Amino acid sequence: MNLIPMMLITLTLSLILAVVSFWLPQINPDAEKLSPYECGFDPLGSARLPFSLRFFLVAILFLLFDLEIALLLPLPWGDQLYNPISTLFWASSVLILLILGLVYEWTQGGLEWAE
Questions:
Q1: Buried (b) or exposed (e) across 84-102, using 16+ Cβ within 10 A?
Q2: Which of 5, 43, 88, 110 could connect to 105 by a Cys-Cys bridge, CB 3.0–4.6 Å?
Q3: How far is CA 79 from the centre of its chain?
Q4: CATH of the domain at 87
Q5: 54 lies in which domain range?
Q6: Is residue 106 part of a domain?
Q7: Per-residue pLDDT of the chain (115 residues; tens, 9 = 90+)
Q8: Structural domains in the chain (count)
Q9: What's the whole-model pTM score?
Q10: Is the dihedral of CA 30, 34, 40, 44 positive or negative?
Q11: For residue 53, what are the β-bridge partners?
Q12: For residues 98 and 68, is the Cβ–Cβ distance under 8 A?
């Protein structure tokens, strides 16, 4: 295909989509759209609401195990190294350490939402 017709088609289609996107939406502001939304908190109340530390604990545990998966992703390629036993040893030690930490948090009641 020739370059000039392709560029004309692309430009025309882009302009049509841009013009339609300005005409298509209905702009009818109502009370719900005009009211401020602050992540579910009452915007007119106190800004110093107590926040549960357990939420942060669960969030940190999620990030920790999410990063663990990212660290273990190259593990299948580790068996092609000169000494795959050492790769398996270090990956297993990381997993065991994380599992022991999770068991400790679980037995201490750190993952319970209500006391």
A1: eeebeeeeeeeeeebeeee
A2: 110
A3: 30
A4: 1.20.58.1610
A5: 50-114
A6: yes
A7: 688 889 999 999 999 999 988 888 777 777 766 776 656 655 566 666 666 777 777 788 888 888 888 878 777 777 788 888 888 888 888 889 888 988 988 898 877 766 5
A8: 1
A9: 0.48
A10: negative
A11: none
A12: yes
